Amino acid sequence: MVLIIMIDFIVNDRYFILKLIFGLASLFLGVYQNFKIDFTRKNGILVSGKIINYFEKIDELSDYQKKYYYPIIEFKDSNDVERKIIDYSFGTTIKPKKILPHKINLYYIQKNEQLEIITENNWNNFVPMLFLIIGIIVTLTTLFYHFYK
Predict the structure, then answer these.
(1) For residue 15, what are the contacts with CB-CB under 8 A and spacing of at least 6?
(2) By C-alpha distance, which of 105, 90, 116 is closest to 49?
(3) Largest CA-CA distance found in the chain, in angstroms, rounded
């Protein structure tokens, strides 16, 4: 049912501008995320760290309280200073069952007082590619059905 609604939305020419904006925005977001990840990997410092616990945050904006779990990562920077940071870039509603501490590799860049980190995991490759694929499909099908109808 959802697939039929999505196909009808793409094929139907009523929302041409909206679909084009959505496709181009997805494309831009995918390119931006991919660039940001590549920049951090090329210019950041690769260190070994570990997830020592999970920070529990309650989302009170929805009708019911929903819990999100964010990893608390501990690592030593290039100056041999031990750091603890909460990675808000990847949260989950299901508390992970991995045995703690869990070892990970991460890249970090120090920007003034802030640390920007990217953990080495498959999500860093998957999410930008997903946005790129969605953006390409929606943009091309929108343009195709608009001009070659």
Answers:
(1) 9
(2) 105
(3) 63
Shortest CA distance to 98 belongs to which of 62, 130, 61, 50? 50
CA contacts within 13 A on the Cβ side of 124: 16
The span from the CA of 80 to the CA of 5, in Å, is 55
Contact indicator for 115, 75 with CB cutoff of 8 Å: no
Count of Cβ atoms closer than 10 Å to residue 128 Cβ: 20
Query: DSSP label at 92?
Result: B
Taking alpha carbons only, the member of 124, 121, 133, 62 closest to residue 93 is 62
Which residues sit opposite 71 in a β-bridge? 54
Which tens digits make up the pLDDT trace of 83-99?
Answer: 888 887 777 888 888 88
Distance CA 91, CA 58 (A): 12
**Is the confidence at residue 23, as pLDDT, over 70?**
yes
- Please list the residues that pair with 79 across neighbouring strands: none
Residues, the chain, total? 149
pLDDT value of residue 96: 82
